């Protein structure tokens, strides 16, 4: 196990007629979570992994899907795995 957790969000632009298929595929993909869609052909995915490579693999897999125009990394954060599991202290 690595000491890092990588959290990323992707914006996928797709032909509107392929949006539902991509949403279903992404929802069934173990590393992806669909966080939003736009009927015009936009899909937001969130992923969490122990390294960069699974994020890159997910991006490549999305690009290979029918109707996908672009896949863009919108956000990427690297957290220390031990610190990420600690509850956040709320300041008054």
Automatic annotation (TrEMBL):
Instruction: Return the GO cellular component terms, semicolon-separated.
Output: cytoplasm
One annotated GO molecular function is: signal sequence binding
Q: Which GO terms describe its biological process?
A: negative regulation of protein transport
* Compartmental location: Cytoplasm
Q: What is its main location?
A: cytoplasm
Q: Which Pfam families match?
A: NapD (PF03927)
InterPro entries on file: Chaperone_NapD_NO3_reduct
| Alphabetic keyword roster | Chaperone, Cytoplasm
Classification via Gene3D superfamilies: 3.30.70.920
Q: What does this protein do?
A: Chaperone for NapA, the catalytic subunit of the periplasmic nitrate reductase. It binds directly and specifically to the twin-arginine signal peptide of NapA, preventing premature interaction with the Tat translocase and premature export.
What does the record note on quaternary structure? Interacts with the cytoplasmic NapA precursor.
Sequence similarity: Belongs to the NapD family.
Record's protein name:
Chaperone NapD
